[in-house]
Design goal:
Blueprint: E1 3-4, E2 10-11, E3 14-25, E4 28-39, E5 43-47, H1 54-61, E6 69-74, E7 77-78, H2 84-89, E8 92-95, H3 107-113, H4 123-127, H5 131-150, H6 166-179, E9 184-188, H7 196-213, E10 216-220, H8 224-230, E11 233-238, E12 241-246, H9 248-252, H10 255-262
Parallel strand pairs: 5-10, 5-11, 8-9, 9-10
Antiparallel strand pairs: 1-2, 3-4, 3-6, 6-7, 11-12
The structure holds adenosine-5'-triphosphate (ATP) and magnesium ion (MG).
Pfam families: ABC_tran, BCA_ABC_TP_C
Domain ABC transporter: 16-264
InterPro entries: AAA+_ATPase, ABC_AA/LPS_Transport, ABC_transporter-like_ATP-bd, BCA_ABC_TP_C, P-loop_NTPase
Length: 268
């Protein structure tokens, strides 16, 4: 079964189904009884005020946090407790709210680290540049070069990441996530702190990734213009609870969402 969304995008079967997820840290309830699904090829946005539990939700999806209650169904199977590296091996890649790159390493080397979960020959074999490892290295390099071209960052490939302006660092982080060739890509505020032009570029890249690689995307974003433009469906969180879920226009007109989030000027 597939559906055509308001964006004109065709989405498929449910890829990820979060069922009644609850997560707390000591006395702090970060997530309370949250359910929603993500369909293949969808761009699914998560919005809500600061501290609502958005990043925690992504951390649950890629195995950084383990919810005390609830169940995660991925590709139709209940997923067992999983470490982030296993999640990565199972096709889940992400970027972080605070850029997590090796600042002293070049753009190219940072993106190469995104291939780690796909490297069969161990690091030692790769280090001594030996037989199968060499062939594998060549293949990984080619993939990384393809992503560098795709995100238009050829001119900075040898630059240490720490020397780049913030907007470009965000793009490099996206490149590293793409290097893992994920089926599901989790983006935590990929446009935060960007100027208009940088935002426009990032929107275009996200749409291109979704369209050309068929990647399913879960995106946390505060800019409602962006959310309205690129997402198929939106989940709204507030104080760890889900208060809205639906097409962008529907969510935007929801009185409870307006009261808790859109009407107020308390975010960022
Ligand atoms: N590792 C942790 N230990 C303790 N509390 C945490 C931890 N991670 C998140 N929390 C708490 O869980 C709640 C939700 O935080 P989370 O970072 O998920 O919110 P958010 O919606 O991403 O907010 P923001 O828009 O500011 O990024 C907050 O009260 C936060 O303090
Ligand atoms: Mg967050």
């Amino acid at each position: 079964m597939s559906e055509v969304r308001n964006t004109g995008r065709k989405t498929g079967e449910v890829l990820l189904d979060l069922q009644r997820i609850s997560l707390s840290f000591g006395g702090v309830k970060a997530l309370t009884d949250i359910s929603f699904d993500v369909r293949e090829h969808e761009i699914r946005a998560i919005i809500g005020p600061n501290g609502a539990g958005k990043s925690s939700m992504l951390n649950v999806i890629n195995g950084v946090y383990h919810p005390q209650h609830g169940q995660i169904v991925f590709r139709g199977k209940v997923r067992q407790r999983m470490h982030p590296t296993e999640a990565a091996r199972n096709g889940v890649a992400r970027t972080f709210q605070n850029i997590a790159l090796f600042k002293g390493m070049t753009v190219l080397d940072n993106i190469m680290t995104g291939r780690n979960t796909r490297m069969r020959s161990g690091l030692i074999a790769n280090a001594i540049w030996w037989g199968p490892a060499r062939r594998e290295e060549t293949m990984h390099r080619a993939k990384v070069e393809e992503i560098i071209d795709f995100l238009e960052i050829q001119h900075i490939r040898k630059t240490p990441v720490g020397r780049l302006p913030y907007g470009l660092q965000k793009r490099v982080e996206l490149a590293r996530a793409l290097a893992a060739e994920p089926e599901l890509l989790l983006l935590d505020e990929p446009m935060a702190g960007m100027n208009l032009e940088e935002k426009r570029d990032m929107c275009r890249f996200i749409l291109d990734v979704n369209e050309q690689f068929g990647t399913t995307i879960v995106l946390i974003e505060h800019d409602m213009g962006v959310v309205m433009d690129i997402s198929d469906r939106v989940v709204v969180l507030d104080y760890g609870k889900k208060i809205g879920d639906g097409a962008p226009a529907q969510v935007k007109a929801d009185p409870e969402v307006i009261r808790a989030y859109l009407g107020a000027a308390h975010h960022h």
